[in-house]
Amino acid sequence: MNESLTTLPTWHPGETLIQERVGVRQRMAEVGPRVIRSFMPDQHRAFYQQLPFLVLGSVDAAGLAWATILEGPPGFVAAPTPTRLEITATLPANDPAGPGLVDGAAVGLLGIELHSRRRNRVNGVIGMTPQGFHLAVDQSFGNCPRYIQPRDLHLPAEPDTLPVPPAEHLKSLDDDARRLIEGANTFFVASYAEQEGQRRVDVSHRGGKPGFVRVDGDGLLTIPDFNGNLFFNTLGNIVLNGQAGLLFVDYQSGELLQLSGTAEVLFDSPEIAAFAGAERLWSFRPQRLVRRRAALALRWTAHPDEEADSVQLTGSWPQARARLQALERGNRWQSLRVARIVEESASIRSFHLAAADGADLVPAQAGQFLPLRLSPDEGQPPLLRSYSLSNAPADGHYRISVKREGRVSGWLHEQLREGDLLDTRLPAGDFALAASGNHSLVLLAGGIGITPLLAMLRHLVHEGRRTQRFRPVVLFYGARRKAERAFDAELAELVAAAGGAIQVVRALSDTQDAVAGVDYEVAGRIDMQVLARFLPFGDHAFYLCGPAAFTQALYDGLRGYGIEDARIHAEAFGPAALQRSLPAGAVVPARPPAATETVPVIFTESLKEARWTPAAGSLLELAEARGLAPAFSCRAGHCGTCRTRVLSGAVTYPREPAAAVAEGEALLCCAVPAAGSTRLELDL
Fold first, then answer.
1. Based on the number of CB atoms within 10 Å of its own CB, is 244 exposed (0-12), middle (13-18) or buried (19 or more)?
2. 362, 340, 343: which is closest to 353 by C-alpha?
3. Which residues form the FAD-binding FR-type domain (predicted)?
4. Are 75 and 126 in contact (CB under 8 A)?
5. What's the pLDDT score for residue 304?
6. What pairing do the DSSP bridges indicate for beta strands 299-302 and 221-226?
7. Under DSSP, is residue 78 helix (H, G, I), strand (E, B) or coil?
8. In whole angstroms, what is the distance from residue 569 CA to residue 562 CA?
């Protein structure tokens, strides 16, 4: 190995591949040279010199990566210059990471304090000394404290004279090893990359809730990758050579479980969306397994009631399994318990909902709605309604905020009590905040149309806290009177949490009993003149929700100002769909003609069948005639509530629906069997 690696670029192809997939390659090309240095800043040098241990990553002669812990009294690490570390300690002969420590070898070091949640990494090339080794620094960089679980360190009063048990070389994970891994909330991972004939080794920390590492029956480990610093050192190394070494620590007994094997990054697994906080997954299959009981003199005491803030936003594999099972249930009804009822204004009441059995709820997308099945009249068929969710996906519960303005909403206000059960289906709807984007956001709410936009705003603040990057947002919120307007205090809290990234412009049609500049910024309704007055110049994406006239007027106004249709996301209340002006050259998808003959239809979930004829109308009308009660809202193809899986056969639409419909789905309210379908099976 060469003694100098300084000619290599900051990022190698594995790291840039993932940065490209995430959309930050150009940004990281600019940031990289500033944050990954070829020397140690003074604060890093001082930090290393006070530590009683280091996490070390090495590679043996067979190319296997290993992670371990190197102990010594505080001061066993010295930093005489910004480019050199001197370590006065050696590894035990039975440590599998030891053979990788030879003159000229590349290693990675991690300095970490679990009690203070500080960590810094340094990679380079070593030279062996009689007392240990010295490191010529190639890369030095700091890491934030996210996902580090706090633990108090206990230094040994005197060296332990008891004999150290021999290392155990396991053929596979036994019960003790599985328990250690499945109960872990912290582990360490070593990885490396070869580039231009040179090697760089890195060792890093991973943390999450106990259970965040899954162990399958055949010993395969699957680990979520949470949002981090966008460096992708570990995963980039895995992309290049598929090798990794994992270290699990029993902090009470000093036991080390060291695994070396092959790893793979999973970019497109359906389990990613089910695991709260996961951006991607990676798997690890151990090929060599070494357990060293009582290997460490150091011990740590956990803080069972203190969890890192970042970890609180993540999930576990049992929770992910529950979410996937709920998703598999698809259109089936489930009972949710009313956990809390909150008066938001003179006419709006919020209902907080949780699973009746205490299970985790499937996270909704910010902006979606919740279909409900209600029975306000005893002995009468249930009524189906949909209400926008006003909570963020990460809140852990559902919240619908209902304005009292009709028989059903009046029943909810008057009859529903905490502890009652509601029949619901999974959250649905295409009016949802885009997962990512560089545009600043403009949210336009009319009356109770604030509810899905509030969910979006809560989600944006949650993500901003998680990533320390807040997207600029301007919320225009119109109401008739101050007494009818909801969420004033909540909006103020969100504005404060965003640190200036969110601006709220409030409009009141009736300003009686309201103070200008205190209770509102605009007297009257939100229109294009109001937008021109308050909206800063910029590259915006727009989200509109409110009464049909409100939404249509603003949509038409934005299109008149030259805003692209794709930049305007809108949802109107009531059966009237938004009339969009399609961009020039837009092509309406070609649909097959409708069937003209009788088509047998099987409703597989309810084990019922029917025979569709042109006189039967839509598939929704056919299902209702057969005694079924599919969820619906608009009956016009613009809300997506009635979306149902097509198991066999094909459907078409005499009139093109406004809601998006994927391959293998049908919007029952406006779908009919397509010509040529001899049989149609629906998951209903």
1. buried
2. 340
3. 331-434
4. no
5. 62
6. unpaired
7. strand
8. 15
